[in-house]
Amino acid sequence: MLKIIFLITLIMIFGISINEIYSENIQLATFQETAQLIIDNKISENTTVSITLLSSNIQEIIFPTELEEKIRENGRIQAIILTNQNNCVLGVYDQSCIIINIERNPNDKGIDAIQESTKRIADLYIDEINQVFDTNAEFFQVFIHTDDKTNQQLKTSGIISGQGIIAAVYTMPMEDTDSMYGKLSSTLLSKPIRDGEGFYNIAKTLSNEDNAKMSFSLIPSDTKSLLQLRLSVEKPNEIEENLSAEINPLKFFNIKNLERSDYFSSGNYPLNSLFQIVILSNEETTVSNVRGDVIETKMIDGIKIPNQITKEGWIFDPNEGEQIQGKYIFGERTSINENELKFSLGEDNIQYDKSEFDESTITIIIIVIVSLGVAAFYLKGYKK
User: Fold this and answer.
1) Which tens digit of pLDDT belongs to each residue from 228-256?
2) DSSP letter at 248?
3) Which of 48, 68, 70 is nearest to 59 (CA)?
4) Which burial class, exposed, middle or buried, applies to 10 when counting CB atoms under 10 A from its CB (0-12, 13-18, 19+)?
5) Within its chain, how far is the Cα of 151 from the centroid?
C-alpha cells in the first residue's frame, strides 16, 4: 500500500513539473484517458472493455475543494468509491454502493472497536459525499476485507479493496449505468473535457450496453487526490480458446477508429491517451503479425522504455508467455484506425520500427509508465 501511495505522489508531483520542464517539446498533462481490453481465457473466461478517465486536478475531474481537503487532512481515509457494480461487498445485492475505506487504528482492539471507529469517521463525510453525487446512500455495514474477492468483483486492487482494507459501506437503489454515468460525468467532468470527446464519447456509448458498470474513486495523498471515472463492460469471450485468430481490439469497443480527446490539441501530449490490452492464455504464446508499428525499446530497470515517444506504435511487455500485455502510444497522431491495432498470436515475427534512443525523454517516460500502473488499479491485478 505504501508503494502505491508513493507512486500516486510521484504522478502528482511530476504532473505539475513536467509541463514546465518540457514545455517546448513533450508535455504530460494531469488528465489522462485510457482504453483497456482484457481477454481472459484462463480465469474468468470473459472479455472486459473499459474506459478510465483520470486526473489529479480537481478542476478537470471536479470535486469540491473544501471536502477534498477535509478528506486528505483526515489522514485515515484511504479511498472513496462510488459504484453500481453488483455485490460491491458480501451481502449487497442489486444495489449501488458508496464505500469509504478507512485505515485501521492500531488502538482498536477487536471487531466491535474496529467497526465503531470506522463508522464514526465515515459518518462525518457521507452527507457531503451524497450531496456531491446527488445520491441518498444509507449505512449498510462495516466490512473488513479478509481476501481479494471484492477486488476481483470490482476489478480493483490494493488500496481500493485489497486484503486488510476496512470499508464503511453505504447502499442505495440500483441505477442503470447509462443514467448514472451520464449524470455523474456531466457533473464531475469539466466542460472542456466533455467537449473534447475522445475516449469520453466511447464510454458514453458503452454505458448503454447490458453489462455496463461504472465506478468513481478518489484516492487522497498528502497534497492532492487522484480521481478516476471508469466505465466497463464484461462479456463472454468471443475469441477461440487457442487465440489463434487475428485479434481486432477495437471490435470489442464497437468502433472503427480510436480518437483522442481534443483536450490535448493545444500542445504535444503523446502519452496522455493510451490503449492497453491484456491477454491471459492457457498456454504459452507469442505476439505475431502486428499490422501497425512496434516501437523499438530499451530495457531499463526491468521496464521496456520506447526509444521515441513521438512515434505511434505498440510496446508489448511481455510479448510472450501465458500473459501478454501491450500498450499503444499515439505519438503525434490524433486518431488510430482498427487495422493499425490488429495482431495475432503465434510465431514471433515482430518487425520493430528502428529509431535512436532519446536520452532526454527517459524521465518523462518512466513517470508515465508509473502512472499507467496507478491507472491500472482497475486492471484486476494485471500489472507489473
Assistant:
1) 999 999 988 766 555 567 899 999 999 99
2) -
3) 68
4) middle
5) 14
